[in-house]
Amino acid sequence: MKRLFLLAIMIFIFLLKPESRELQVTFLNVGEGDSILIESPFGQNILIDGGPDEDVVRKLGEALPFWERKIDLLILTHPHSDHITGLNSVLERFYVDRVLYTGVEDSLPAYDDFLKIIEDKNILISKVGGFKSIEMGKDCSLKIIYPLNDISGKSFDNLNNSSIVSKLDCANKTFLFTGDIEKEAEEAILISGINIKSDVLKVAHHGSDTSNTEEFLNFVSPELAVIQSGEGNSFGHPSLRIVKRLERKGVQVLRNDIEGTIELTYKIN
Ligand SMILES: [Zn+2]
């Protein structure tokens, strides 16, 4: 009887023991486009971009537990179809708490749809321009580091350079998410003096050679670089020159077009 009692106590203690927490960053294989899911150790889900079509809903379903239909923060880096179109399906099918975007001007129909769905569903939406830190819990934050200033209502000749760039600092790991910025934006970030050193780099603009300058990569100095490009895409992404440039620096390169969805998990004790 006494033994049974002790066993019951031990099972009770085991069940009470908190699970070791994890940070998961998943680079969803959405074809030619970007979509990154951050699952923080504190339970928040952040989605950066949604790829070119509704396939992101299925990919999110595979990455998240089956009961999880909540995105705490959805970030649109810039309104190009390979980043925004899938977000519209996510906004329709998931419970989205908050949206962050730059408010840049563009006439893409999917951008109108994006803003309309958000308005219809009464979702909180904020424009970001200039530094902003989103705190998620102890030693865990997402910092918006670019655009450097408010660009709301402005139009860009090259929308890629309006992309939101953010840095995740969590579980003693740092990640730089660069959207589709090109050389000009990379230069502006370097001149600003912001610390972009990161363990993991989401390679800018699907590994294009109009981005990812030698100097920018030297400052980021990642251990691991992830390229979000679609298998057999017509743009020739990623550029072989950029892949070689990263490899010459001793950076491990992972690509969605080769590996499929890439999931990085870090345990926190
Ligand atoms: Zn893109």
What does it look like?
The chain has 269 residues and is α/β, with parallel strands linked by helices. It has a single domain (20-268), classed as Metallo-beta-lactamase, Chain A. It is 29% helix and 28% strand. It has helices at residues 2-16, 55-63, 81-93, 109-120, 183-192, 214-220, 240-248, 256-259, and strands at 21-27, 36-39, 45-48, 70-75, 95-101, 124-127, 132-137, 140-146, 165-170, 173-177, 200-202, 224-227, 252-255, 262-268. Strands 6-5-4-3-2-1-14 form a seven-stranded mixed beta sheet, covered by helices on one side. The chain has a seven-stranded mixed beta sheet with strand order 7-8-9-10-11-12-13. Helix 4 links the parallel strand 5 and strand 6 (124-127). Helix 3 packs parallel to helix 4 (109-120). The longest helix is centred in the N-terminal third of the chain and has 15 residues, at 2-16. Zinc ion binds next to helix 3.
CATH class: Alpha Beta
Give the ordered list of helices and strands: HEEEHEHEHEEEEEHEHEHEHE
The number of strands is 14
The distinct bound ligands, ions and cofactors come out as: zinc ion
The number of helical runs is 8
Total separate domains: 1
CATH level-four homologous superfamily name: Ribonuclease Z/Hydroxyacylglutathione hydrolase-like
Percentage of residues assigned to helices: 25-40%
CATH level-two architecture: 4-Layer Sandwich
> Over all CA atoms, what is the radius of gyration?
20 Å
Average pLDDT over all residues: 94
| CATH domain fold name | Metallo-beta-lactamase, Chain A
Give unreliable regions as ranges: none
As a percent range, the share of strand residues is 25-35%
